[in-house]
Amino acid sequence: MTSTEHIPAKIRHPLRLRRIEVAEIIPLSSTMQRIVFKGDDLHDFVTAGTDDHVKLFFPQPGSDELILPEIGADRSAVHDPRVIARDYTPRRFDEEQRELIIDFVLHEEGPATRWAAQARKGQILGMGGPKASHIVPDTLTRHLLIGDDTALPAIARTLETLPPNHRAVVLLDTRETEKSYPLFSHAWMEVHRCQKGGDETLHALLRHVVLPATDKLHVWIAAEISVVRTLRDHLVNEEAVPRAQIRAAGYWRRGDDDDTLADVN
Fold it and tell me: Domains of the chain by range and CATH?
């Protein structure tokens, strides 16, 4: 049984569509591209949760013309097959400068990857969201963060917000290194990485790590959807972590050509 004081709060935000402009492109590695966006439409942008996600709208391949969706009364987009949209985590937002940073993982396939790989200053994207933010209560002072390349922006952002009296254990299966994507925190932090070029999985890594005490533990998981379900089920069934203290999201699905977010809690 999870105490109500340990349940994350959900904050809803007004939903609107924005146009954002590429201001700077910063290659982090051969598989990660950082893009800085600016625009007057960011004047009232809010991202309160470290794992918020926005939906970016991309032009059709070979065109710079944006096709943005219509938003229905239920806050969902009206289906339009011409619209190309993918979910991304805001890595950092500077309210004063109206500057938004988003890190793109460069996959082998997909319209978002192709766009990010060729991005240039002055290009315009559409953006919607975040619809809501999940705020972890201060009563949860122990953190288990698990993810792959797609989870790195949210993990890095979370670590940066933790106060010194918190503790974090991080499990990563990523092509990035401490040099290409450094992690920083004022909290005590322990990072474990799957061995490169081997068969080690996040599930195998989880089995060999000493977990923080569950009474004050918040777990955050994001990766391929079937991997996320396996990790979540292991924590609930084998480690007795209360499900309400686990936030799990499938950031992509094997076989799809780009990232699509699915809540698996």
Answer: 10-132 (2.40.30.10), 137-263 (3.40.50.80)
